[in-house]
Specification:
Helix content of chain C: 25-40%
Distance between the termini of chain A: 40 Å
CATH architecture of one domain in chain C: 3-Layer(aba) Sandwich
Oligomer: heterotrimer
Order of helices and strands of chain A: EHEEHEEHEEHEHE
Strand content of chain C: 15-25%
Chains: A alpha+beta, B mainly alpha, C alpha/beta
Radius of gyration of chain A: 16 Å
Radius of gyration of chain C: 28 Å
CATH topology of one domain in chain C: Dimethylsulfoxide Reductase, domain 2
Strand order of the largest sheet of chain A: 8-1-9
């Protein structure tokens, strides 16, 4: 069974924002209003000169146990057979409960469609055509690795199986399919 | 880390939570006057007001939708896991039984068959009140189940909303009572002054309970996860300080006015003095209005303090 | 294309219906006209992609343009192009917003009142014929008066790097030698010069660190992750993922430093001391590659022990290279370097040269002696870096294989820039990593460089000669043109044809350049954006953005693979704009110089000029491409479908220089001891700046910081290449405060009462000019240093996005150093102190 997910390798993220721009153009997000499907916040730890800076790409976690889906009153938020969490813009009435229910702050209201919207892994526009999501396709750091987490031959599958990649806040019980390889100093 | 606050739910949802809470509780108090005093002059307008509040609240909820014209999908899609769907069921139940019950009380609908039967009315009132309690509680549960907002994610929140709902429900009955009292000749007024004393006593108790829950809730959250403590400090020291203090001021002042009246009235009774209109009706009117505004401010403040889950790598 | 077929079928249906209607009613020609329109519309595919080249920075990454319903929707990376290998940065993605930027120049503009220069007042929109006629008339005036050389053809990085032949052909055709691209002394000259004298190549596109295979990488004065040349950044990031150790020397926590295993917040401008101390450790602990030094460098070259001058060198008529003496350990005598069996690497000897006994030592010996004084403890005091750190980095660099120090990118920053990069080159040579996997390798473009001298008639050449400045390499000297414009020295420059670039916002001390641009009699500008410099033009000829035009064929510049690439027009220009090449040809045509243009172009491209002209006349720029592609022997259809074709892979090219093929240095070897610099020394006497063996030179602004005075440093951010990309709404919305503001150390900011996000005033102690920008308070910058990104500070109110961003206009803070020209051409852009106050 295909189980689409994404590994995010924080070790090589340079915070360049290519993924953001690619996503905005690919998916025509309402970025002009500051609403977008992916963000790359910058974190600084420590004080001069012993500081660590981490860029952490954020997007929909495509949870196995997605709170957005269980709170949706109309079934607009749903999960595809291959594990991608999507919003059906026809059925969404825009109650925004999912926006508040998503612990990963991955959702926003697209006023043009009068519907909630979010990262789709570029499901219909790219993945179903055999391509990878726009953010993965453009990433100069090879930070984002999209693939079938159940496929041991895929890079994503290998990393998922290795245990190197970890979910964000597993305590929330959402079981995300976006996993992070943490940044560790090697010397 | 800068706290990120939920930004999609604003005044309309605050009004909905507030009106739901107040409306549900008003039904309970209204039914008390029917069940134990057979006081239709309070129960009837109370049930009607309760119904109007909840319907108005539901209307605000619909208005808050991006697609209000498609609100029916929230009902017909039958997504039982969603508290919005469950809410629509509770609201429907409340509106249905509340309407039946109100019809039995209101003079224009006395032709309905159950209006004549006190037993049937008692049963209907009980069901409507139960739904009222559900509505009041549900407004808290709606937020309380959300793990994404750790500050909301607490059993204390529904408890707080129930307490606040009851306080506003009592206050709304207080207003109805005062208005009814003012309309009557002096000799009849005495009865309403009596009710007013009861309501004032209850209000004081419920507001006391509300404050207790609030203190507990904030104390626990203060030492809870970062998101919750930043929500609390936003209210105590930060940008929500003003609306939070306004809420406290309104509710406490309102309760104080009512309890002041309660003591004045007791002293008057003991001394055998006459009940002035101002003391018996205008004072509780003011107190009740303050409590109600406070209830709305509480919902709004809690919504504004919805600090989303934070992440660090 | 499938979509075309479907559309065709739709068309047939429509045609049938319309045809049926036609038989019923109406005159036939009307119906036919309608039919033709319908057919044209139906045959236009709704969605298609064409390959292109990114023009958001000089790296020219391969892209695909995706067009839907006649609108450019998306730019995707093109994996066929070996430079970016299927990666694209935010700027590349935001190219879509460059096309649909409402701030663009939309139609030709003419302004007759020259006193309004520097503003956007007084422009009148006109048609192309009028604009071109007027522009041609302006140029004709000078040509007819025999003053063609008083026209300066200028530009920024695009004509400097990408479209150079097309602009130079124009300059030559109208008879002026004065073409100036982006000014090397402000760009890469000091760095490129140092590398070129050491290994024969040093420009941006010519050399690189082989990050992909390196296990230890040292980066200094460069932020390749954050400035994102994608051809470099993707390999750098991959190296990190692979587990390579990365050390970054930078006064601030750059994006590269964020990735590094070790961030060394070195004092600005003191990298040379760090490097000299590294050299000290490496030679004293014997961590160098002896065989490499002996065979492939001039380390064994004999110098006179008293003067450190070469004992003897002479020309080899067969190779055109310099020969030199070495001490042959096998025979115990001095011999020509290619005749010795075993050249001595170190030592002092008495040898007989031309019948005279001379005390000599090897170049390596001289280097070892020079480095003796530069101990880690000494450097520690200068760099503000613990000595242990220097020792550790040196030892790791000497023992982890393969290790490399990155060759840098932009560095006209300090007076010691040349010797800094000389030392980087020497350290790389010491560990023997030149042109080896994981080492310091050549890009394909750096393997066959031809040097050409600048024509003597140029104003800058005459000017430099007059002042006794070293005209070492063929690098235009834009700063000389200030004198030429303002005081007519060496001869007057009266008119400028700008083909891009933004000199008012990039050249040191903008007041001087504003004065110069007001002084010019005529200014014609070809550009896409209404930038600060274009506001000084009298005639504006709007250029297209890159997806709106066909491009000729180019060699891929920034890749170890040898490849050719092109860009195919994706959409028609959305405004009344024309590609720059067309504009130049049309101007040349009006001046009767079209034949000359194509002859010049043909000579530069190595193809027949007449063939170019006829191909251009029938197919436009695509015709130029066709002629180039045919001459190269690749398939036209393939290149316009794939966008790029690899001719030779990295693996076929690497490991040849200097092992099988001599380098472009005088001796053909890696020059530990620079013969070029020795030549300058012989002519001009000793200066530490051209000491053939690196020596410590402190930056000019070592002292004077403290209180509210800071070192000024700058760099790039991932969301802006330069002022060219500053006006882009998508990039502006992605940027974070650190991309727009002035970095100031948190502890120092607290002392000065500056909070994050406050407006601060920076005053240059050198120019006295001030700028106001937002403070970015951070622990990621040295306490004595402020940092800012170089793309900002736009003053043109037509650049609505860039103007809204504000930021620091660096060239208000940079002085034009008066003695700049007594050295090697170097603008010394970080030799500046600034006073920081709350605004």
């Amino acid at each position: 069974m295909t189980r689409y997910g994404m590994i995010i390798d924080l070790r090589s993220c340079i915070g360049c924002g290519a993924c953001i721009a690619a996503c905005d153009m690919e998916n025509e997000t309402p970025w002009e209003e500051g609403k977008r499907r992916t963000h790359v916040p910058r974190f600084t730890f420590g004080s001069y000169p012993n500081i660590t800076v981490v860029y952490m790409p954020r997007l929909c976690m495509h949870c196995e146990n997605p709170p957005c889906v269980s709170v949706c009153p109309t079934g607009a938020s749903h999960v595809t057979v291959d594990g991608v969490v999507l919003v059906d813009h026809e059925i969404c009435i825009g109650c925004k409960y999912c926006v508040v229910a998503c612990p990963y702050d991955a959702r926003y209201v697209d006023e043009r469609m009068r519907s909630v919207d979010k990262c789709t892994f570029c499901y219909t526009n790219r993945v179903l055509k055999g391509d990878v999501p726009a953010c993965d396709a453009t990433c100069p750091g090879r930070v984002r690795i999209f693939g079938d987490l159940d496929d041991p031959n895929s890079e994503a599958g290998r990393l998922a199986a290795s245990g190197l990649a970890k979910p964000l806040r597993p305590d929330l019980g959402t079981n995300p399919k976006v996993l992070y390889v943490p940044k560790v100093k090697s010397m | 880390m800068e706290p990120v606050v939920q930004h999609v739910w604003g005044w309309l949802i605050a009004l909905y939570l507030f009106l739901g809470g107040m409306g549900g509780a008003t039904m309970i108090v209204a039914h008390y006057f029917y069940a134990s005093k057979r006081e239709k002059s309070l129960a009837a307008p109370g049930a009607l007001a309760s119904l109007i509040m909840v319907v108005l609240g539901a209307l605000f909820l619909i208005l808050d939708l991006e697609k209000p014209e498609k609100f029916y999908l929230a009902v017909i899609k039958f997504q039982t896991s969603s508290w919005v769907f469950r809410g629509t069921m509770i609201l429907s139940g409340f509106i249905l039984f509340g309407a039946l019950y109100a019809a039995g009380l209101l003079p224009w609908f006395q032709w309905v068959p159950w209006a004549k039967s006190e037993k049937a009315m008692d049963a209907l009132g009980l069901i409507a009140s139960a739904f009222g309690l559900l509505v009041t509680t549900y407004t808290g549960i709606l937020l309380g189940v959300l793990k994404a907002v750790p500050f909301w994610h607490s059993p204390a929140l529904p408890a707080l909303f129930v307490a606040s709902g009851l306080a506003t429900g009592i206050a709304s009955m207080g207003i109805i009572n005062a208005l009814q009292g003012l309309r009557r000749p002096v000799e009849e007024r005495m009865r309403f002054v009596g009710y007013c004393t009861t309501l004032s006593k209850w209000a004081a108790i419920v507001v006391g309970a509300e404050m207790f829950i609030l203190a507990l809730y904030y104390y626990v959250n203060m030492f809870g996860p970062a998101e919750s403590s930043s929500a609390v400090s936003m209210m105590l020291f930060g940008e929500l300080r003003r609306s939070f203090l306004a809420y406290l001021d309104f509710v406490l002042l309102g309760a104080a006015l009512l309890s002041m009246l309660y003591h004045v009235r007791k002293a008057d009774l003991i001394a055998g003095r006459d009940q002035s209109v101002v003391k018996s009706c205008i004072l509780p009117l003011g107190g009740a209005i303050l409590i109600i505004i406070g209830g709305l401010l509480l919902r709004r403040t809690i919504l504004e303090a919805g600090v989303m889950t934070q992440f660090a790598p | 294309m499938a979509s075309v077929k479907i559309a065709r079928r739709d068309f047939l249906k429509v045609a049938a219906v319309t045809g049926a209607l036609a038989t019923l009613s109406g005159p036939e020609d009307v119906v036919i006209r309608i039919l033709k329109k319908v057919e044209a519309k139906a045959l236009e595919p709704r969605e298609y992609t064409v390959p292109g080249l990114c023009r958001m920075c000089v790296n020219s990454c391969g892209t695909f343009f995706r067009v839907k319903d006649g609108r450019l929707r998306k730019i995707d990376p093109n994996p066929n192009n070996p430079a970016n290998a299927g990666n694209l940065c935010a700027r590349g993605q935001a190219g879509v917003r460059r096309v649909y930027n409402p701030d663009r120049l939309k139609r030709p503009l003419i302004r007759r009142d020259k006193s309004l220069r520097g503003t956007w007042q007084g422009f009148e929109a006109t048609d192309w014929d009028t604009a071109l006629d007027e522009a041609a008339a302006v140029l004709k005036k000078y040509i007819d008066a025999g003053e063609a050389k008083s026209i300066m053809v200028g530009g920024g990085w695009l004509p400097c790097g990408v479209y150079k032949p097309y602009v130079v052909a124009f300059a030559k055709a109208i008879g002026t030698p004065n073409f100036v691209g982006s000014p090397p002394p402000l760009c890469f000259f000091p760095k490129a010069f140092a590398w070129t004298v050491t290994i024969g190549a040093g420009g941006h596109p010519h050399i690189r660190a082989d990050h992909e295979y390196a296990n230890y990488i040292i980066l200094l004065r460069r932020n390749l992750a954050g400035s994102i040349g994608v051809p470099y950044a993707w390999q750098f990031a991959r190296a990190k993922k692979r587990g390579a150790k990365i050390v970054v020397l930078d006064p601030r926590m750059s994006e590269s430093a964020a990735l590094a295993d070790l961030w060394v917040p070195i004092k600005p401008g003191t990298d040379l001391a760090f490097l000299l101390a590294m050299g000290h450790v490496i030679v004293s602990e014997g961590l160098y590659d002896e065989e490499f030094l002996r065979r492939h460098t001039n380390a064994p070259m004999l110098l006179r022990a008293d003067s450190n001058a070469p004992a003897k060198t002479w020309d080899d008529p067969d190779t055109g290279k310099k020969k030199y003496l070495v001490y042959d350990e096998a025979t115990g005598e001095a011999k020509a370097h290619d005749e010795a069996l075993r050249p001595a690497l170190a030592g002092e000897f008495d040898v007989e040269i031309d019948g005279e006994t001379v005390r000599v030592k090897t170049a390596f010996q001289a280097l070892v002696e020079r480095l003796q004084q530069y101990t880690p403890e000494w450097a520690s005091q200068i760099c503000d870096v613990p000595a242990e750190t220097i020792v550790r980095v040196a030892r790791e660099f000497g023992t982890i294989k393969p290790a490399v120090i990155d060759p840098g990118w932009h560095d006209p920053k300090y007076q010691n820039s040349v010797q800094t990069w000389r030392m980087v080159a020497i350290l790389n040579a010491l560990v023997g990593n030149i042109d080896r996997p994981g080492g310091l390798i050549f890009n394909a473009a750096g393997r066959s460089l031809k040097s050409s001298a600048l024509p003597d008639a140029r104003a800058d050449v005459q000017w430099m000669k007059k002042k006794g400045i070293i005209v070492s390499t063929a690098q235009p000297m834009i700063l000389a043109y200030y004198d030429a414009i303002v005081s007519g020295d060496p001869y007057p420059i009266k008119a400028a044809v700008l083909t891009g670039g933004n000199w008012i916002r990039t050249l040191p001390d903008d007041r001087k350049w504003k004065e110069a641009f007001k002084k010019l009699e005529d200014v014609i500008a070809i550009d896409v954006m209404p930038n600060d410099t274009v506001s000084y033009a009298d005639i504006i000829l709007p250029d297209t953005t890159y997806p709106e035009r066909d491009d000729p064929m180019f060699g891929v510049g920034f890749s170890p693979d040898a490849a050719v690439a092109t860009s195919v027009r994706a959409i028609d220009p959305i405004y009344d704009c024309r590609p720059m090449i067309d504009i130049l040809v049309q101007l040349a045509d009006r001046l009767g110089k079209k034949d000359a243009y194509f002859q010049n172009l043909g000579a530069m491209l190595g193809v027949d000029g007449a063939a170019l002209k006829s191909a251009y006349e029938s197919e436009g720029i695509a015709g130029i491409r066709r002629v180039q592609v045919e001459a190269k022997g690749v398939s036209y259809d393939e290149i316009v479908a794939k966008g790029a074709i690899v001719l030779k892979t990295r693996d076929q090219l690497i490991g040849t220089m200097p092992y099988k093929k001599p380098l472009g240095t005088p001796s053909g070897k890696v020059e530990i001891y620079s013969l070029k610099m020795a030549g300058i020394m012989a002519k001009k006497g000793y200066s530490e700046h051209w000491d053939p063996i690196p020596t410590w030179i402190p930056p000019r602004v070592m002292d004077g910081v403290g209180g509210n005075v800071f070192y000024l440093t700058y760099g790039r951010s991932p969301i802006a290449s330069h002022t060219h990309t500053a006006d882009n709404d998508l990039l502006a919305s992605i940027g974070r405060p650190e991309h727009f503001g002035v970095w100031i150390n948190a502890a120092r900011a607290a002392e000065l009462g500056i909070r994050d996000g406050d407006m601060v005033k920076l005053t240059s102690l050198a120019t006295g000019q001030s700028v106001v920008a937002k403070a970015f308070v951070t622990d990621g910058v040295r306490p004595d240093t402020v940092f800012t990104v170089s793309a900002w500070g736009a003053e043109s109110e037509e650049l609505k996005v860039a103007k809204g961003i504000g930021g620091v206009a660096l060239n208000k803070l940079w002085p034009m150093h008066e003695d700049l020209f007594t050295l090697l051409p170097n603008a010394m852009t970080q030799e500046v102190l600034v006073r920081v106050e709350k605004a």
